[in-house]
Request: fold
Amino acid sequence: MDTKFGHQVQGKNSGSGVGFSCAWFSLNSGTLILAANGSSHTNTSVLACIAGDHYYTVEIAIQIEPGCEAGLILLYIQAHTAGLTLGSKGVGFIRNGARTGSNVSANRATFRLVNEQQDVDMYYRLPGEPWVLVRSGIDITSYNDNSFGGFLDVRPALYAPGANYAKFRSLLYTPAAVVPTL
Reply:
């Protein structure tokens, strides 16, 4: 039995551990694999969770296969998001449907979003490297005011558009603002 994500998951035994799978994701031995679908974060399936705290930190390690993009976002509705993405254009920043890339190319990275009462800081770290601050002080207050007619609150979410798949490991949710040492 796997207990990642705070839930007990039972499923088939693949010989390498207990796993769970459905049409677009599988969970096996602590690794979540999302099959890529859609062309961007605005039209792909997302896997979201409820964050019941005013201060919280979400961190996850991501590995992408060629043709895939993957990321960690704070999702209100898919057109109104803020977060980080990893893809062929490098490590990028997403806000309300727009994506900005960087010249940092990688297929693995760890992302950290720090939410302090709707004021968000975003960080990434490449394997063996120090943390890098991407954006600081992003105000997402309007996302939680139901001003866009979506659901009730901002939710941390994972996504993977494109082709192939992305692997997610070591999901960490902390009910406090944890700023990394830069």
